[in-house]
């Protein structure tokens, strides 16, 4: 860990982002948790690889799924990188990726790695099961 951020403190910062920013829509907290020079190494469609891009993504998810609820299954720390496996749940009430609201309940898994330095999230790498999400929203045919 750089500076005085411990492994447990880093996990808490990432957990707080997941539960309070993503899950509860606390965007004032988002501004405090993310470094201004944040870099998203795996940006989602229609976003930019910076803090603004993540802010846009989080707002889109909250608008599409007002009851957006992440469940963290596990976290681990390697140096200054916190890896989290989680499942997102929600009800499709707003347009997402061009798909009009369906009212369907969805869930999809994500693995994120976030670097925490000096108490701020500075980098992100992630894999979200968007294929499963798009199938659940009717944007892709089911695999048989």
TrEMBL record:
InterPro entries: Cyclase_SnoaL-like, NTF2-like_dom_sf. Pfam families: SnoaL. It comes from the Bacteria. PANTHER family: ESTER CYCLASE (PTHR38436:SF1), POLYKETIDE CYCLASE SNOAL-LIKE DOMAIN (PTHR38436). This is Steroid delta-isomerase-like uncharacterized protein.
């Amino acid at each position: 860990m750089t500076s005085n951020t411990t492994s447990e403190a880093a996990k808490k910062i990432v957990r707080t982002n997941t539960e309070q920013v993503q899950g509860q829509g606390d965007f004032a907290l988002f501004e405090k948790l993310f470094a201004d020079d944040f870099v998203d190494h795996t940006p989602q469609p229609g976003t930019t690889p910076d803090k603004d891009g993540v802010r846009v993504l989080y707002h889109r998810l909250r608008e599409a799924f007002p009851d957006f609820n992440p469940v963290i299954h596990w976290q681990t720390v390697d140096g200054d990188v916190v890896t989290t496996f989680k499942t997102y749940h929600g009800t499709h009430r707003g347009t997402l990726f061009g798909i009009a609201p369906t009212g369907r309940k969805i869930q999809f898994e994500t693995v994120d790695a976030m670097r925490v330095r000096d108490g701020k999230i500075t980098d992100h790498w992630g894999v979200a099961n968007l294929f499963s999400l798009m199938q659940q929203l009717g944007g892709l045919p089911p695999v048989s």
